[in-house]
Amino acid sequence: MSSLTLNLGFWALPLRAQPIRYIFELAQYPYQQTNYTFKESKEWFEKDKKELGLDFPNLPYLIHGDFKITETQNIINYALDITKQQNLQGYGLTRYKVDNVRFLCDELIAKIFLASTKTGEEKKAEINNSVNPKLKYLQGALGNKQFFFEDKLTLADIYVYTAVNGLQHLLNDEYKQFVQTFGPFMKNFEEIPLIKAYHSSNRYPKLS
Ligand SMILES: N[C@@H](CCC(=O)N[C@@H](CS)C(=O)NCC(=O)O)C(=O)O
């Protein structure tokens, strides 16, 4: 299975599909990427969306040999399986706590991006209704810990890092009120050796 080429298709942004990239990076699992840009969005909408043979074309998609799937959470599950990193889901009841954060952040990441595309009152409303309340819940759940659960890295940390990194770059004014809680958490994640190496590699699609 692992000798087959695995390709992850998404926008060249560290947003919704970014946790999938972290899962491969943390396992040092070989993967390729097709990172589409908004400027050349025709590559996706006019070409690959029609031609890749996906049953339910969307971004992200994963193609592993002849096996083709979409839906972010489906791809996350597959990536955890093939990299044998089910430990990132936690154990026992913690699994459901981890997934609580995972699914909340999946939505939050999309809302942060959406808010960043708006202006004026519309932007303010999106931030006040959909973004900041969730960040406050996360802030309360993290407290002054370095990891969300069991003193070790789980998918919850990967998801919160991705969301807060999006906030920091796309809605920087909002990030300021959360920096005291999330600053040390972000730094802790960035200091993980495999993450550090990945962030400075050309495989990491940076924001701005
Ligand atoms: N339910 C899907 C939603 C995917 C989605 O909304 N993808 C956006 C980017 S976050 C996109 O640009 N899709 C490309 C398309 O609609 O063709 C998932 O969780 O993967």
UniProtKB/TrEMBL annotation:
It is an enzyme of class 2 (transferase). The keyword Transferase applies. Keywords: Transferase. It catalyses: RX + glutathione = an S-substituted glutathione + a halide anion + H(+). Transmembrane segments: none annotated. One of its GO terms (biological process) is glutathione metabolic process. It holds the Pfam family GST_C_3. GO terms for molecular function: glutathione transferase activity. Its EC number is 2.5.1.18. PANTHER family: GLUTATHIONE S-TRANSFERASE (PTHR11571), GLUTATHIONE TRANSFERASE (PTHR11571:SF222). Belongs to the GST superfamily. Mu family. This is glutathione transferase. It comes from Tetrahymena thermophila (strain SB210). The lineage of its organism: Eukaryota, Sar, Alveolata, Ciliophora, Intramacronucleata.
